[in-house]
């Protein structure tokens, strides 16, 4: 016998509330007290209730949704974060409306928030590198929309969950220093990017602690093509560079390609580190030493914290997620390749002598 589908009336009866309250939990959860909302949610779970989205839309109602304003999903990190946000929002019976503004300025971002408002969306995750003044202005001028930011500087006075760049960047430089490298090239992201500037600042701070002040810096645009071109620029400026620290894995791929083309192997080899630990970085040639960020965890926490913020708009949320260095074969001790070459030559000579 087929089981009868639970209705909104069944949920209301189970939770001991009105059907209107159940509807509010589905469409405007921020206007329902946390205690009542939890009671309704538990009733939905107990009855395996599935909202009829088609009926809601035909009735002129929008499905419960949150907004995501993000950088281009052609880039690895934004696409992975967006996928995690959609997955965990779905687990909370929330749709995700995604906006990718071409310009990252006040007018463009405000227009996106206005679109969310028109769709009755009262919570937005903003995954763009924003200046403090811009992020704070968006919050102050949109008090009816709870905003959670993922890519801002530490001093910005807004709700956020973000990665701790300092740990990962410092670990990269210290790892190379311990391997004996003293001549560094730094390939940063765009100067307009807040996250790129934070990574660059962390590299320089760690180098300064080790007494290095002559590192050469160039700026890319996050792409592999940019990494390829900027590797030539770095080595043209300082041919004795033995280690290049790169702001993301895609640019690091371009750097490795350029080094291979320049035949920078053996005694002329250059160590390379990336940032992000993309799925493909393990299969670069050589496999890339990089900084891992758990994008799945960031997406999960972003959804959870935004739901909390929508339920209690007055709470202040500031959460920092860890990063850690993954060491692979793209970094090696300074001079080791030269030593290996010498040992190989000696071994070949010994073989020739034995044959004589």
UniProtKB/TrEMBL annotation:
Task: Tell me which residues make up the HTH lacI-type domain.
Answer: 6-60
Q: State the Gene Ontology terms under molecular function.
A: DNA-binding transcription factor activity; transcription cis-regulatory region binding
Keyword annotations for this protein, in alphabetical order, are:
DNA-binding, Transcription, Transcription regulation
* Name the record gives this protein: Lactose operon repressor
Q: What is the lineage of its organism?
A: Bacteria, Pseudomonadati, Pseudomonadota, Gammaproteobacteria, Enterobacterales
